[in-house]
Automatic annotation (TrEMBL):
GO CC term (a single one): plasma membrane
Entry keyword Transmembrane helix: yes
InterPro entries tied to this protein: GPCR_2-like_7TM
Domain of life of the organism encoding this protein: Eukaryota
Ranges that cross the membrane: 23-46, 67-88, 108-128, 140-161, 190-215, 252-271, 283-303
GO terms, molecular function: G protein-coupled receptor activity
GO process terms (BP): adenylate cyclase-activating G protein-coupled receptor signaling pathway; cell surface receptor signaling pathway
Main location: membrane
Compartments it resides in: Membrane
Record-linked Pfam families: Dicty_CAR
Protein name (database record): Integral membrane protein
Keyword Transmembrane helix in record: yes
Membrane topology: Multi-pass membrane protein
Length: 390
């Protein structure tokens, strides 16, 4: 005999005009994010599987690439949950518990937590690679990826398993954890969102401070007449390095504000609801529309910022051009298999893949097989710009 579940008091039947309009906005934004994330995911998959020279080495070992790849998977799951809004619109109601309601709730639970934790993972990797100049081995990195996905799945399934039938119910303009489970909302969802937000801000801010410290303490200075000629060349090199750092710093600031702007309103609204100061449904609709844009924004930020000037390894050596002993500016990656440039005396090595997947990839190449560039003194003191078309 089939068990009949009691309809949650938060169900809407029929939908109000404002809720219906809000669901349309959420569904449209979710569809755009889904299309963007799926397109990027498929293209990255194509690169791994079919591009010569990439499937065996570069993508598998480029850790930032793989972190962004997993972030797109999280964005696909999250965006799919908001596309379900069109189902509720077609039915002119939002009711739960039900199969569709449970499906939407599970997808939101997985997608929100996963996107936050993968964004945090990118921030952690950026911090350790740039500030600490350290990365883990490929084997350890893969194990950490599996562990992180296992944590995400445990957080998404432990609640429904314990509550059995009525864990998910209408919560505003979509289905999510029922308001009866305040504690589960906190420790299975929002505590991880807040950790991701706070952690990302701290890590990116620390990385920015490190980069600005390198800039402010790396000004070239001539220490004698015999260095007059090289000073001009080194000043140009230092200026180019500073330009790179400033551009990447701007993108890091964009990552911070984009993530906070998209996730903080909804998280704050739910937190207010837990202390009996629940905002209006219009607030949740607006906040839901923002978070439904996450997939599209991630694609724009993490894919659209990778075509940058390819001077790698933001370290003291790449910014401090004049230390009084005629040291040549050096910017290099983890492996040096260089070939000469006959006209300018510039030495450069290009690894298997001529592409940066993000601003971080450019900065992190000190420990990955991306591109290795060695700058030597030349008579002209010119810099070659390297652009990697996709």
């Amino acid at each position: 005999m089939e068990k009949t579940l009691k309809v949650a008091s938060s169900s809407l039947d029929p939908l109000t005009n404002s809720t219906r309009s809000g669901m349309i906005a959420i569904g449209v934004c979710g569809t755009i994010s889904l299309f963007s994330a799926v397109s990027s995911f498929l293209f990255f998959t194509y690169r791994i599987l079919y591009w010569p020279g990439l499937s065996s080495q570069a993508p598998a070992r480029r850790q930032v690439f793989m972190l962004i790849y997993n972030l797109f998977i999280a964005d696909i799951i999250q965006a799919s949950s908001f596309v379900i809004s069109f189902w509720w619109i077609s039915q002119n109601k939002l009711i739960g518990p039900s199969l569709v309601c449970d499906t939407q709730g599970v997808l939101i639970q997985i997608g929100d937590v996963a996107s936050g934790l993968w964004a945090l993972a990118i921030a952690i990797h950026t911090f350790f690679s740039i500030v600490k100049q350290k990365t883990v081995s490929h084997r350890t990195f893969v194990i950490l990826l599996v562990i992180l996905w296992a944590i995400i799945m445990i957080l998404a399934t432990v609640g429904p398993i314990r509550a059995k039938d009525n864990f998910f119910a209408p919560a505003g303009a979509w289905c999510w954890v029922s308001e009866e489970y305040h504690a589960e909302r906190l420790y299975l969802h929002y505590i991880w969102i807040f950790i991701s937000e706070i952690g990302s801000v701290i890590l990116y801010t620390s990385t920015l401070c490190h980069l600005y410290f390198l800039i402010n303490t790396g000004t070239p200075r001539p220490f004698g007449p015999h260095l007059a000629r090289s000073y001009s060349r080194n000043a140009k090199a230092c200026s180019a390095s500073r330009t790179i750092v400033m551009r990447c710093s701007c993108h890091m600031v964009m990552y911070i504000f984009a993530y906070l702007g998209l996730t903080l309103p909804l998280a704050a609204g739910r937190a207010m609801a837990m202390v009996n100061r629940e905002p209006s449904i219009e607030f949740f609709i607006a906040a839901g529309t923002l978070i439904a844009c996450s997939g599209f924004v991630d694609v724009v930020l993490y894919v659209g910022t990778r075509n940058l000037l390819a001077t790698n390894c933001v370290t003291r050596e790449s910014i401090d051009m004049g230390n009084g002993n005629g040291t040549q500016p050096l910017v290099e990656g983890s492996k040096n298999r260089c070939s000469s440039n006959t006209s300018s005396g510039m030495m450069m090595e290009e690894a298997n893949d001529h592409k940066y997947e993000s601003c971080e990839s450019m900065l992190l190449s000190v420990n990955t097989e991306v591109v290795s560039v060695t700058l030597r003194d030349s008579h002209e003191g010119n810099f070659n710009r390297i652009s990697w078309p996709i």
